[in-house]
Structure formats: C-alpha cells, structure tokens
Amino acid sequence: MTFTSAVFDVETIELAGTRESIVRGGRHLFPLLPTALEGVDQIGVIGWGPQGRAQALNLRDSLADTAIEVVVGLRAGSSSRAEAEAEGLRVGDWLDVVASSQLVILLVADAATANNHEAIFERLQPGATLGLSHGFLVGHLRTVGASFPEDVNVIGVCPKGMGDSVRRLYLQGREINGAGINASFAVHQDVDGRATERALAWSIGLGSPYTFQTTLDSEYRSDIVGERAILLGAVHGIVESLYQRYRVEGDEPERAFARSAEAVTASIAPTISRDGLLGVRNAFEGEDLAAFDRAYAAGYGPFRDLVAEIYDEVDSGNELASVVLAGARLATSPMQPISGSPMWAAGASVRAARQEAAAAVSDPYTAGIFLAAMVAQVDLFAERGHPWSEIVNESVIEAVDSLLPYMHARDVAFMVDNCSTTARLGARKWGPRFSALLDQVISPIADNGLEISVTAAKDFGQHPVHVVLERLATLRPSVDISVG
Question: Which one of 210, 236, 265 terminates a domain?
Fold first, then answer.
C-alpha cells in the first residue's frame, strides 16, 4: 500500500516482498501540523475514556503553539467533565462539539457509537472530517445497511496500543524524540482532497513513531480479532491453562504463576521486543529446545483454526452485533472482575516479592505455546490479505510494547478487567476457548509423544515474520514504556 503527502516526507519500505509507504513521526514535525490541518480551527474529541483522554491531551500539547483548539465533547452530567476540565481542556455537550468542530474524533464506546451514529451524523458540518480510532462503526454500518454522510471526510487513525500507553510514551517522548505508539491510518471517504494530510497530522500529533496505511475495513477485523486472540483473550486463556497444568505437576502456586503468566510477561515479551521471535527459541537448547518445538508444533494448527473461527465471527458481523446487544445489558448489570481466582492471588504474591534485577523464569513449554498462538494469528491475517505492517503491529508489536508490560505490572486479569468494553467482552468469551483447546487438544498431543517434524521447526525458523519484525523494529525508538 502506498500514498503521497504534500506536507510530510513519505518513505517506501519492503516487507516480505511487498512495498508499503510510511511516515516517520517526531516532535520536529509539530510545526507542520497546522499546514496539514488547513481549514481546521477546532478538533472535537468526543469521549473521555482511556483513548479519549490520551488523544485529547496529546493533540492539545502538540498544537500548543497554534490557533487550533482541542475541545472535549461529553454527555450532560458526565462524571468525566471535572477531570477533563482539571487538565485545562474546554468541555462542551458532545453533540454541540460535533457541530462546531471541523475535525471530529469519535472515541466513545463502540455500542454507544453504533446506537447514536444517526444523531452524530446529523450534526456534522458539511466538509467536516470524521475521525475514528477503530473501524467498528464501519462494520456496524455495513451490517445494518447504513452509510456515512456523503459530504464529510471519513478517516481513521488507530494507535496500536491502549490509551494509557499512548499518553505515557508521548510524555516519554519529551526526552526521546519519536517515543510513542505506532498507528495505522486510513482514508475511508475523501470529499475535499485533504483527508490524507489530516489523518497523518492527527497521527503525528499523537506522537506515533511511524504511521502506516490500512483501510478501516481491514483495521476493525484485525483489531477485534487481535483483542480476542493474542492481544488479550489468548493470553488470558493460555496462562490460565498453563497455571493449572503446572499446579497438577506439583508446583506451588507462586512457581506455577512464574512459569505461566510471569514467563510470558517478564521473559518472553521482552525477548521478542529486543531479539524478535527467533530470540525466544534461540534461548533454549537440548531438552528445553525440544520442549519448545514440541509445544509449538502441537499448538500451531489448533490455534490457527480457532483464530480463523474468531475472524469469521467478526467478518460476518456476529461479533459486532454481540457488542451492540451487550450495551443495554451492561448499563444495568456491569461485568464482574475475573481477578478472584486462586491464580491471580498467587500473582499478587509474586509481584509483591518480585526483584526486578532477578532473571525472569522462561519456561520452554510456555514459550512454545505462546509463540504458536502468536504466529497462528500472523498467518491467518496474511491469508486474509492484511498488509504486513498491520499484521506485525496487531499481532506482535502492540502485544510486547504496550499490553504485556501492563500485564506484567498489574496482571493479566487486571488487563481483562480494564480494557474497552469490546475487548473485555471478547476476552471473556474467547479466552476460555483458548484454555479449553489447550487442555483438551494441544497438551494431550504434546504429552503423548508427538514426533516433532523437521518441517515444523523449519517453517518457524524461516517464517517471513522474522524479517518483517526486524525491519519494523528499526522504526521503533529505543525506549520501553514506563508503566509506573
């Protein structure tokens, strides 16, 4: 995928035999933002959830020396109003802010967006630009046979990380130029020829180290599938299953937690971030290497089948409809936390006794299982035609640079309980499927003497994802997120 810009430098990179265009970010580009946002006097950020807060503050700071104002739109009586005003932002009624803004960034919950899109569309100025950070609304409109107004631009800028990561890395970028969360951008509808420049300005203003191109159709599929698979649901299900496996083997709770959840968040994720997927396998030798290969070979096929099922449920609209249906139900009966099980109590003990300088436990079986699920998602996305930059960001970089560091600091259960409603619903629905698949299919195969074929190890060793990840890693600033 390629694009051009009259404001920002565009470079073309080769990824696994395909060519894609990207724009590198950095604070030195902030003076160019008004030019790219020509015609925009007010940016309305609608919503004050994790993404709304992060994006409003980042854009406010990036545009501090310009005449462009960032205004937050909230419903009357919103409990978030005082917090937004305390940050120095002007706050108005959400529909009034929609009507008065030339760039409207819609960051309310997916179900609320679906249920209120008609009112929002009616208030948009002709020629305004509607910005989405998630393609959910595109999928919903397709499902119900509706469309966007014909006289507005529709763009997407989708940070590849949770809202808190978007803000924290932006603040770290004050010391290290370019620190931030990568983002994809999409132009869904361009009525005045300015859509691409506005999308790139939005992404750069958020602090994205680099911005790559996608479509909103592709983005919502990869994003919603990823939440239910390797980014959240699969992590939840895999570590729950492995914890019980190691307890059955005789491990004490803290040891079982260290070999399952802690191995993923404290050892496997940093190794991937630093040395790539091959770095994980290369850390083992002898019997440990054989255990890794056995787990990887047993897990890859079943995991890929499950990710394909999730993808089909998203593609068909079923998964989107379930989120919309849950909106009214959750208004009166909120989701309960999952953090009360014995596993998460053991995690609290591990974190309390953690010594950051100590070497993290890296279990070869856990590593093989986790990488099998990650590569299964990579291959399924490639099969369904997603661009490589999106595949690697949604399947690897977002996991190891944004979500897993939070899981290490706070716990996997904390993440399941504190992500967006769409992600939380998906993790609760599909996480147990990953756990059951591991218990009932994958572990029995691995434990009953599966003979590891040369092909299985060779396929992993020569997978194109390694070259793509190595290339994209050069575009990431040399700074890890400070979770605090």
Answer: 210
- Best CA proximity match to 4, nearest among 197, 178, 138, 183: 197
Alpha carbon separation from 49 to 72, 84, 296 (Å, rounded): 11, 11, 37
Contacts of 206 (CB under 8 A, 6+ apart): 54, 55, 58, 59, 62, 157, 159, 166, 170, 180, 181, 183
Mean pLDDT of the chain, nearest integer: 92
140 is catalytic: no
Residue among 117, 134, 188, 236 flagged as catalytic: 134
Is the Cβ–Cβ distance between 412 and 232 less than 8 Å? no
Q: Determine contact, residues 57/32, Cβ cutoff 8 Å.
A: no
Tokens of 9: 């430098």
Domain total of the chain: 2
> Angle at which helices 233-248 and 216-228 pack, to 10 degrees?
20
- Residue 478 domain-assigned (yes or no): no
| CA 170, 172, 175, 181 torsion-angle sign | negative
pLDDT digits (tens, 9 = 90+) for 102-120: 999 999 988 899 999 999 9
Residues 6+ apart with CB under 8 A from 191: 127, 150, 151, 152, 153
- The string of DSSP codes covering 336-374 is PPSTTSHHHHHHHHHHHT--TTSPPP--HHHHHHHHHHH
- What is d(CA 184, CA 179) in angstroms, rounded to the nearest whole number? 16
CB atoms near residue 336 (< 10 Å): 9
Report the binding-site residues. 223, 227
Q: What pLDDT, in 10s, does the model give residues 213-270?
A: 999 999 999 999 999 999 999 999 999 999 999 999 999 999 999 999 999 999 999 9
pLDDT at 450 over 70: no
Residue scoring higher pLDDT (327 or 411): 411
Q: Which residues are annotated as a binding site for Mg(2+)?
A: 223, 227
Residue 368 is predicted with a pLDDT of 96
Q: Token digits for 165?
A: 């990561």
Residues 120 and 265 both lie in one domain: no
Q: Kindly state whether residues 180 and 246 are assigned to the same domain.
A: no
Q: Which residue range is the domain that position 81 belongs to?
A: 11-210
Residue 124 parent element (H or E): none
Q: What is the mean pLDDT of residues 446-451?
A: 76
